[in-house]
Amino acid sequence: MAFGWIDEQAEARRRAGLVRALRPRPADSSLLDLASNDYLGLSRHPEVTEGAAEAARRWGGGSTGSRLVTGSTELHAELERALAAFCGFEAALVFSSGYAANLAAVTTLAPHGSLIVSDAGNHASLIDGCRLARGETQVVGHADPEAVRKALGTRQGAAIVVSDTVFSVDGDRAPLAELAAACREYGAGLVVDDAHGLGVLGDGGRGAPYAAGLAGAGDVVVTATLSKSLGSQGGVVLGPAKVIDHLVNAARTFIFDTGLAPAAAGAALAALRLLEREPRRAARAREVAAELHARLTAAGLEAVRPDAAVVSVRAPSPERAVRWAADCRSAGLAVGCFRPPSVPDGISRLRLTARADLSGAEIERAVRVIGETRP
Questions:
Q1: Which one-letter DSSP state was computed for residue 160?
Q2: How many whole angstroms separate alpha carbon 198 and alpha carbon 40?
């Protein structure tokens, strides 16, 4: 029977406690949200939603085509200039998603015969980029510059090192300065995904590469998403102008994909301008993360110390993690639940988002609910 094997896989997921299901959320909810990636609390900010609405009114509901045909507007160009200036890079290119941006960066910068050195904890989009690239991939230990050096020393020729700047599971930060030093020893490029760093780390939220002194470097390329701190949707690649020109001409997820919708571009630009005016939001997100961690560990829970705005709490098993998250929801708190295969070490977690707009009372409530519902 066609697709009969799907039933076997569905049963295996059920036995392992790994079944996933969609849960459409209402427009308004009484839940305290620590599950989304809205780090700065901007997705519903009046300036951001008006930026989306104004862009839709002016440019239409969709971009109407690929960026190289009809999908590029003056708004896209303005957003790219603003992102490059804010993050400290020569140029930027906006994509329809952060996933598409990562696929573009890795596949176009790792041609046939090249070497890709990839951190074992990288996001799925970077992993898929490595799989699709024509270069050879070596996966190295998590956040291990010496392992990167060893891998780069195995061959000559073109090479890139690929890593998240802040890892999405535990919220730990990559040793960017050390990775850059290893790359420079062997003439390799550094490609990093700053999805969880932009808006949270660096001066006024300019990102982890900026904080590490790598902004604008000719051998560094940064990807990021517009869907987290900027409260919108889409992705971006930042780097030297020649790299961005290369992507325009060679990146399949740019050439053959419909351009980012004007509303998303308008929302992202409005959020970026707001962050420029209110840089304190970035520091506040980090402060909330530190307070969540301190309170959770004081309550006897095993929480990983955050380097940015992600706080993870270990769970005993996938099944108990799912039940824990469900019990939190029943108590009015939305939290993320990470289980295999989303976690590289096989350890299930609750994943909390430290939003800049959380009050002290909301932090206290969140910690109380998590503690009272623990398995």
A1: E
A2: 10
Residue 189, CB half-sphere, CA atoms under 13 Å: how many?
23
3-class secondary structure, 223: strand
3-state secondary structure of 333: strand
Reference 239, options 190, 180, 310; nearest CA is 190
Residues 6+ apart with CB under 8 A from 364: 295
Which of 21-35, 256-270, 281-295, 300-314 has the least mean pLDDT?
21-35
* Residue closest to 140 by CA, chosen among 162, 167, 120, 164: 120
Q: In what order do the strands lie in the sheet with 115-119?
A: 91-95, 235-239, 220-225, 189-193, 159-164, 115-119, 136-140
**259: which DSSP letter?**
P
pLDDT tens digit sequence for 224-283: 999 999 999 999 999 999 999 999 999 999 999 999 999 999 999 999 999 999 999 999
Return the exposure string of 102-137: e unless at least 16 CB atoms fall within 10 Å of the residue's CB, then b. bbbbbbbbbeeebbbbbbebbbebbbbbbeebebbb
